[in-house]
Amino acid sequence: MTEKVEELFKKAGALLQGHFLLTSGLHSPVYWEKFRVLQFPEYTEKLCRMIADRFRKDKVQVVAGPTTGGIIIAYEVARQLGVRSIFAEKEGDMRVFRRGFYLAPGERVLLVDDILTTGGSVCEMIAAVSEAGGKIVGIGVLVDRSAQAPDFGFPLFACHRAATITYSPQNCPLCAAGVPLVKPGSSQQPAT
To answer: Which residue intervals of the chain are DSSP H helices?
Structure first.
């Protein structure tokens, strides 16, 4: 099935090659542009079905994701599970639930996210759910591109695992070769 996931990303033009500045601050020659996949409801439905099916027996009561890509994924996974969906937004160096979103004490939460590299967003979500009193039953992501899958203390499911090389800025051979650094996202502009 993992080949089919990568094929979806390729068909959507979402598997990019170049020199990219990741949210984590690391550099990489590969970038998984999830929004190029998430723009197609058919692809989103298929990927989210994989996550929903993996956690269907875990009595999930709410699906939570981080802004921005996690909102779409949380909504679709929740729709397929027949539960509600919420998202947490950045506030300083943490994530918080706003807009009237809440978790009842002990409510069973499935965390979802788009692309896992260092696990920073997932750790922020774990803290937000814990702070709100929820009980995490698992974590689902579209792509785990981490060098080594992190142990968050909860079951982790990835639709696709593709360990992708990353470099610290000071040790990046692409920088040394003078390849322009691009900060992906809404603008695809050179990094400053």
So the answer is: 2-11, 34-38, 41-55, 69-81, 120-132, 173-176
What's the token pair of residue 177?
């070769």
CATH topology of domain 2-190: Rossmann fold (3.40.50)
* pLDDT of the residue at 1: 61
Rounded-to-integer distance, Cα 3 and Cα 92, Å: 38
Separation in Å, CA 64 to CA 39, 43, 67: 20, 20, 10
Cα dihedral 97, 64, 126, 130 sign: positive
Q: What is d(CA 3, CA 60) in angstroms, rounded to the nearest whole number? A: 28
Digit-coded pLDDT (tens) for 82-97? 999 999 999 999 999 9
What is the structure's pLDDT at 192? Answer: 45
Residue 187 has pLDDT above 50, yes or no: no
**Which pTM was predicted?**
0.89
DSSP H/E element including 147: none
DSSP state string for 81-121: HTSEEEEEEEETTEEEE-TT----TT-EEEEEEEEESSSHH
Establish how many alpha carbons lie within 13 A of residue 15's alpha carbon, considering only the half-sphere containing its beta carbon.
13
Distance between CA atoms of residues 183 and 94, nearest Å: 22
What's the token pair of residue 109? 């939460």
Cis ω before 68 (30° cut-off from 0)? yes
Q: Hey, where are the domains in the chain? A: 2-190
